[in-house]
Write a structure and sequence with these properties.
With 279 residues, this protein is α/β, with parallel strands linked by helices. The protein is 42% helix and 17% strand. A hairpin with a 2-residue loop joins β6 (169-172) and β7.
């Protein structure tokens, strides 16, 4: 069983070694899922593992990965790829040969010398969590797109959509604008709706703009009542977007409208405020 957080590498691995199962799993965020994944793929017991999270990763991160594997697997052998860990072992044992093996007679003492007890900073933890969420979201996005494309629904990468509008295309608050904002010839080309940020659209055709009233008025006034194509997805670049159809702006709802008290919208705003405080 092989694990990775790169969709590209997973695809390459599956093609090169079709007899092995390769699955998406972030060891640092989802280690508790390891036993379940093993059972799901018919592995009764995992006694050997190879850990490669990048040969240039810091010792603290490598040792964290080792500990997670030891916590969740009954390992007899663990091979680790790490330049910094290798150098530290060479220094500890006094052996300088690049190709020499290093046998540790005092493993606890060696681990103490690495001084890995200092906790990871909150900023580093947040960055790691954001990356994990982004990678998982892309994996979910691809899986959904493949399933719905088979049913005849249209999915296009955001990169290709933006390229189709040419070099003067810019996205403001999810609205794709052709031309310079404020110029007479500026016009909306399309709209991107991030599925996590739009709790009201699919049920009520209400799109949320996260800005002040003046900016919302200026953006919605660009196209008047002209209809634009609307895409539903998450992220930029190669993230896939589902074409929902053509929509036009009718009005900006007043602040006393009942939609502002929708439970899903309020939950999202609370989560957004919480993430903003952490960052």
């Amino acid at each position: 069983l092989g694990l990775d957080v790169s969709l590209e590498q997973l695809a390459i691995s599956r093609e090169r070694v079709p007899s092995v199962s390769f699955v998406f799993l972030d060891l640092f965020e989802e280690a508790a899922k390891l036993p379940e994944q093993l059972r799901r793929h018919g592995v009764q017991r995992c006694s050997c593992a190879f850990l490669d999270i990048g040969g240039d990763r810091r010792c603290r991160q490598v040792l964290r990965g080792i500990q997670l594997l030891r916590d969740h697997l009954d390992l007899r052998l663990l091979a680790v790829k790490s330049e910094e860990l290798y150098a530290a072992m060479a220094k500890w044992t006094g052996q300088k040969g690049i190709n020499d093996g290093h046998r540790l007679s005092d493993v606890p003492g060696f681990l103490r010398c690495l001084d890995t007890s200092a906790p990871e900073s909150a900023k580093a933890q947040l960055k790691k969590q954001k990356r994990a969420r982004r990678v998982q979201a892309l994996a979910d996005n691809k899986a959904l797109a493949e399933a719905e494309s088979a049913e005849g629904m249209c999915w296009i990468s955001r990169h290709d959509i933006q390229a189709a509008f040419g070099p003067n295309f810019k996205v403001e608050r999810g609205i794709g604008i052709v031309g310079v904002v404020g110029a007479e010839n500026a016009r909306p080309g399309c709209m991107f709706l991030h599925h996590e940020q739009q709790p009201l659209f699919q049920a009520s055709n209400l799109a949320c703009l996260y800005c002040d009233a003046a900016e919302a008025t200026a953006l919605t006034a660009l196209g008047g009542t002209a209809a634009v194509p609307v895409f539903w997805g998450q992220g930029g670049g190669e993230a896939l977007q589902r074409f929902l159809g053509w929509y036009r702006s009718v009005e900006i709802l007043p602040r006393d409208h009942a939609a502002y008290q929708d439970a899903q919208l309020l939950r999202f705003m609370e989560e957004l405020a919480s993430r903003s405080r952490r960052s």
